Fold each of these.
Amino acid sequence: MRDLAAGVQPVSATVSWTGTPAIDVAAGVVAQLRDAGVEVRWVPGCSRERDDLYSYRRDGPTGRFAGVVARSAS
């Protein structure tokens, strides 16, 4: 599956924190948006590693999760 994602956007191929093959979905989406001419502002942070961000992987089935996309007037 990682090879298929990398075929669409090479930056998608990565390695997980445990050393296994993984897909970086966010990096792939950001690359596709930038390729389309969309300005992207990356807000860094790993939800698994930061206690102030919700993580299903860390906390289990609790809380809510959302992504935010905003269009700015330029």
Amino acid sequence: MRTGIEKLHWVLSTQFGIDPSVFRRALLRLPAYARDFSRFRKKYTGTMTWRPCLHDRFDEAGTTKSEYFWQDLIVARWIFEASPRKHVDVGSRVDGFVAHVASFRELEVLDIRPITTAIPGVIFRQVDLMTPEVVRSLSGDGGYCDSLSCLHAIEHFGLGRYGDTIDARGYEHALTHLASLLEPHGTLYLSTPLGRERVEFNAHRVFAPHTILDCAALNGLQLQRFLVFSPNAGMQEIGLERLAAIIPSLANDSYRLGIMQFVKSDDSGTCARNLGK
């Protein structure tokens, strides 16, 4: 019941611009606004119009409980510490993670969606990475970069949300193509929703952890770090020696964000053979 209400609220607020909870809070806060307006008006003789900001006094100084906040911060710090030769991002938020990285180094961004603004430190290419020919043209025989990120994006591939082609195996093809872009020993930073496996069409997929980990292994990607985030528990790093014991409980959760770091093995032939299947 609660899940259905939360989903309805999400659809109304994000897709139709109707948020009953915000409307209710606004009504409750109107009297304080009117009182403050009257007090200020009595002491100010200049030009004055009204533009109420009813919620800011009750909010924190910034949003620090969002999974995007922690994901963007942590992976950007990892890249800073690794100092790769060439970092490429696929599909992550430009106004979040990409901006974090661009503040200290140059990076290249690949996305099916356009970016019409020139961003300092960002080289942008509008490409569809679901197209094998595009990936082959970039990766060649030895890969395209030694560092690659794809944060909160792989769960969207193949669902048509961003104008991409409908593909029930979209995440598999995406992971194969990501691995193909990496040079041997290159690093992939990947995040995606984890929990009871399902498709919430056409928003995203939620993966059982083994689905992503097995697909990565088939493409020559070896797991190095594994973190999970939830608003209640915060960010937790799970040691690889404990991972097998934790995976069943993660697969039964409703939703968590998984943040993973992989390294590509020497055997790049697997990716080449899988490309385009």
Amino acid sequence: MNAASGAVPFARHPAGRGVVWLKESWVMLSAARVPWLLLLLTYYLIQLLVSLIPIVGPLALMVFRPVFTVGFLAAAWNQERGGMPEIRHLFRGFGANLWALIPIGLFLVAGTALAVFATVAVDGGELFEGIATNRPLEDVLAGKDVEAAMLFASACAVPIALAAWFAPALVVFSGCGAAQALGTSLRAALVNWKPAMVYGLLLVFFGAVAPALAVKLIALALPLIAARVVVAVTVVPYMFLFIAAQAISDYVSYRDIFHADEGPAPPPEPETDSA
């Protein structure tokens, strides 16, 4: 559906769909681990190179984040239709809809900055000053009320994240402009707050709690050198796989909410001999 013809319809799902999004994403990842990991590593290499540019680099990464998100969406779309994720998919956002995607990135930059600036009311500006002056993390966390300020900033950033969640997919797949994509994404996420909350909690558990607990247990059970080796060969690969699954889940959740009547694409027809 082209967004110019009216509002983009979306479905309302029960809480359990949040589990399904990650489950289906893991199935897709399991069928193409190497291509997805190559795609992810290429993206991280680009991030590393761009981040070396002082001041402009980190800002550019955030502005162009929705553009690269389209690359992961394109890779998932292609895989669901019988193809495989390819490096070229990563740059798909630069070839079309670029000028609708960049405003979404600018929205992320402005929204994040406002969320951090709002913490001045909580800790008197300690967190904001620490980030602005690039102080070491341990020094920033030593400040009074900084942890409360971080929680407050996270809460302020929730609507920003929800608005940006489906926005790149809505631009590419539904023909929305940036403003309509952000507004539609926010409304769909709020309507689906139950599965979104389950999904978010699962991301926190599998992406932060579980690996942190694993690292802690390994450190307690083994000498320092052995622990580092075990972490390097278990937790680090796990994190790459988790991040890849999370990237795929952006497509899976979008498809489930905005194309619920279509379902996953059917597998390709098997080839038959014409003889």
Amino acid sequence: MKYGYEKINENFLELNFIGSAGQSFGAFTSKGLKLVLKGDANDYVGKGLSGATISIKLSDESNLISNENTIIGNTVLYGDVR
């Protein structure tokens, strides 16, 4: 077996997104995957997360103040099994 759960390094595959993510962005993702979103996301981001890394940040063009605004929906990381 070339790859297996124990052989995959953290951030083995990084995917970068720009814009708005819908329901359940990054749901049920596993070790080795890193998702980076510049924008905003709806509910259930990272639902059932199993070792992946998810980063949601304001887009470079945004004029929002991050600590005064919401860029991610309800129920984030529900069922995270790290």
